[in-house]
Request: fold
Amino acid sequence: MARHIYHCPLRWGDMDAFGHINNVTFLRYLEEARIDLMFRLAPGDGEESFSGGSVVSRHEIDYLRPLVHRHEPVTIETWVTDITAASMKLKYEVKDHDLLYARAATVVVPYNLAKQRPRRLTPAEKAFFEGYLDDGAVPV
Reply:
């Protein structure tokens, strides 16, 4: 099982009044990692993977310790824990070397924007995500 590794920069404006990264900003960080995985790395070879759209149907996040602004990026590891015909569940860890700041999960549904309804995963999309599948991952 491979994990997608994304190095996410922290921006000065990500801090809240208490001097740590705001909880809502964590969702933006997860989005950046997910988009990097689904749109930069997902199958090319002439296929329009997720170009028709996708929607998030669920987020879960557990904040484990405060993350403060600094110039070094934070690492976000992403992997897949469930694939169905028309959705996948991604899990994440937001961390540094040995510090874990948050664990999270997102359910993503492929979506046909033109028809305004969910669609099935293509065989190429399913095969791509199977490369990141880990049934024994840490539960969120």
